[in-house]
Amino acid sequence: MFMIEELFEKALHIKEPWYIKEIRFDENEKKLEIKINFKPGATFHYESEKEGIRGDYKAYDTIEKRWRHLNFFEHECYLICRTPRIKTEDNKVRLINPPWAGINGGFTMLFEALLIELASNMPVHKVALLSNVSDYKIWEMLDKYIDKARESEDYSDIDTIGIDETSKSKNHDYISLFVDLKKRRTIFIAEGKGSQTVKEFSEDLQAHNGDAKQIKDISCDMSPAFIKGVNERFPNAQITFDKFHIMKILNDAVDKVRKEEVKEYEILKKTKYIFLKNRENLTKKQKAKLEELSISKLNLKTLKAYHIRENFQEIYKAESEEEFEYLLQRWYFWATHSRIKPIIDAAKTIKNHWDGVINWKKSLLTNAVLEGLNSVIQAIKARARGFSTFKNLKIMAYLATGKLNFQVINPNYVRY
After folding, report:
1. pLDDT surpasses 50 at 1
2. pLDDT, averaged across the chain
């Protein structure tokens, strides 16, 4: 029959030379403390490639260390260990980390795995309240895991990239996401949205066995800063301007027309989203309103702008590159002769980025992956009611969209 200490040793996977010396349970404080020691004469392996040290050593002295572990039912559990220090050939004293110790001082591996899983599904502040651990310690731990997981990343096979931006808070403090479009994951996050972010990404790519020359396709919006950065840093990359971003330009143009015309025609009031949606996504009420506007005989410029926008979307159904460019040229002529300034301006913006628009038919790149990841980040921001720092937003963005392999650091972590 097992003694209680032996049962806990098996449950905690504690093996020689470690053993449980004592178990203390405080019902009033709702706390379980498990005291751990090591057998006399035990040796401990220490290895550091950076320091050029490797070997087995006996304890030089000991210090008491404490780790928060998974709760024992509703009771907080702590492992308290007489932890050995060793003296190596260079006459320096070094601490031996027991096998249960996490990378953040004071947590066990299992407890860290739990915190990562919780933080992946709820705001850090709620995780802090649930676990009775400070927000600061959780952020610190997550930051360490992300840094260590990214150290082992290999980008040698990446050749197709998507670039997008999102704001830390409403309309300001942007971050730029660099996404592996084939593996559908964020591989780099930079503060800001200028050409400097592309430079930072190219350097990070190289630091992870990647090569700027092997990047053949990049999908992004028409930001001059992104275009400048790509042209400077990725000499072999073809830029594709995604349909989503072009449609945003056209939607903005249609909405400008509506805003100007609503001053003259009250019938256009409260119709903004009718003209921003695709026809098939309109509600019954919105379809009825659009029909009412169509038969009003008012010759509305907003309706004409809306039809030009709809016609542009049809171009993407072309079956060949030649047909795509031919339809685009016809559309451009129609738009620039529409006598509707916002539409003419939008068409000229497209003309100024003609090659990147045409490249879509060649690369067939879509920013749907980017938009999906961006929406995940927006949901996290909403759930947490925003982030006070770029660092915290970056941590959560990597955690939610980076598909990082934390098992390299912590074998107890299971990625679902």
Report:
1. no
2. 91
